[in-house]
Amino acid sequence: MAVAGYAVMRFAMVCLWLRAAQQDGPRRGTAVRYAIGITIVQLLWIARLWIHDGTLTTTTYFVFMACELAVPVWAERRRPTPYHPHHIAERYSLFTIIVLGEVVLAIVQAIQGVMEEGHFSADLVMLIVGALLIIFSIWWMYFKREHVDIVESSELPMLFGYGHLIIFAAVAGIGAALAAGVDVAQHVAHVQALPIAIALSVGVALYLLTLGIIHVVGGHEPMRELLPAVVVSVACLGIGFSPLPIGASTLLIGVVLALAAGHAVHSNLRRAQLAEPAVAH
C-alpha cells in the first residue's frame, strides 16, 4: 500500500511535468527529463515488490533511493527551473518546525507514561531538562537568521535542499534518542545508556555540521564561522561516547548547545554594537 500511494503521488507529478513541458518551451527539456526520471524510478519501486530476498531488498532500497535523489540533479543540469526563494525557504523552515514538533510529541508521550507510573528519578529529571535545552537550542540555531539569501544566491542551490534531508533525519534521530533515553532512565529499556547517548550526540553533530556547511557554502558566512559548529560537535560527541548515565549525558549536551547559542547571541550583539559607530559616521 505504501508503494501504491507513493506511486500515485509521483505519477501525478509526471503529469504536471508533462504539462509544464507543453507550456514552457525554453525549459521543455528539463520538464521532460523530470517526467522520464520520475517514471523510471517509480517503475523500479513497483518492480521491487516482486523481490523477496532480504539482502537484495535492502540493497535495492538504497540504490533506488539514490536514483530518486539523482533525478533533480540530472533534470536541472542544463536549464534550471525558476523558483521563488522566499517560498522555498519558508517551506523548508515549516517542515523543520514539523519535525521539531514530532520530537516534542515523542518526548512528551514518553514522559506521560512515566508520570502515570509516578516514578521520577534524578536521572530522568536531568534528561528532561537536557532535552528541553537541546530542542530550544537547535530550534534557535536554525531560525536565528533567514535563509532566503542562501536559497537565491547560493552557487550550489541543490545543497540547500539535499542538506535539509540530513537536517530532518538528524532532528528525527535526536527525538528518537531522547524518547529511548526516557526508557533507559527508568530502567525499562533493553539497551544500555551508551548506545542511546551516542545516537543523540551523533544526531546533534550531524545537525550542527550540516547547518554550518549550508551557511558557509551558501555564501552567508566565512569558513571560520564553521569552526564553532565543529568544536561544539566534537564536544557533544565526546559527551556521548563517555560512560555517563543517560540523564547526565543529555543534560551536558543540552548545556553545551545552550552555551553555544548564548555565545552566538553575544557575538551578534557585539558585532552590531561595533558597527553602530561606523554607521553613525
TrEMBL record:
Tell me the superkingdom of the source: Bacteria
The answer on whether this UniProt entry bears the keyword Membrane reads yes
User: Which segments cross the bilayer?
Assistant: 32-51, 58-75, 95-112, 124-142, 162-182, 194-217, 229-261
Q: Which UniProt keywords apply?
A: Membrane, Transmembrane, Transmembrane helix
Keyword Transmembrane helix in annotation: yes
Q: What is this protein called?
A: Low temperature requirement protein A
Taxonomic lineage of this organism? Bacteria, Bacillati, Actinomycetota, Actinomycetes, Micrococcales
Q: Name one Pfam family in it.
A: LtrA
| InterPro entries, A to Z | Low_temperature_requirement_A
Native organism: Arsenicicoccus piscis
